[in-house]
User: Fold this.
Amino acid sequence: MRLALRRRTPVPHRIDVSFEHETLQRCHTPVVAPGPDPTLSSAMKPSASLQDYVANPVGRYIHGSTYLVWHKSVRLRGLTFWGRPEPEHIASVIRSIDLDVDGEPPASLVDARRVTSIVPAAFDLLADYLRSHHDKLRHRVSAQALLRADGLIGVTVEGFYRIIGHPYPVEVFTDPYRALAWLGAAEHPNVIREVDGLIDEAGDAQSTVRAIRALLAKNPGKRLSLAEVAASLSMSSRSLQRRLRDANSSFLAERNDAQVDFAKYLMTDTNYDIKRVAFEAGFSSPSTFTALFRKVVGQSPTTWRCRISKGAFRQVAGPGR
Assistant:
């Protein structure tokens, strides 16, 4: 005998979060926005730095290699993760979202659908922040919709939210437009398209940065110019600079880092003196090398080399020898 199965209409996942002395029951009642928000139709602009974003977040965004933090308007902000967020990425995200709010707190859209791998230390860092700022967060976020992927990663992300708990209403969705509707921003689907476009741009920018770093690493000791690198990557100098700005970097910073990395290799694997290291790494003089190394690393080349050498000796000799 065949049984007729009735198809169930999918509903957003429900989260019940328990705290000591109280239980917050999350219901499916949509968050009601106080009225149309005309600022939602304006395109967000990139922030020049993390400090710039923190100082003036509304209408702006900032991203790293695995995240995008955006603040569409005074009523809606969001956070998107992709790939494999590392602890240092989470630390940057925390600094960008640790913002006091004047007036009514905004709704929040967190999109974890593109996460491909979980780093326990990274999520531990985020959990510590959420726990330690529990009381403050109730005044910073009015409600939060979490977008999760299907499969094990999605289940893990949702489980993380269940364990941590939040002092504001939370719902889990797989459909971004239903999430927006629950947050009271259904009339602004362009937000999803805009954020998707920003993520694509971030991916293009990061792929360009990786290509630049690979090219500089293949030419150690050569101070390649912006024009030379751009030509090697079949793009104009202006396009290369724009991609680097999108990745919160610059050609000078990338070239300086490449030179310092090569200098570290020389100081670790050769007996060259500092003058020879500076020359081989493409610096015009030892003083120029020392100044840049100190700026990037935080200590002089001699001090760094001594510390690394002592560390290597301890590993070879072993403790107590």
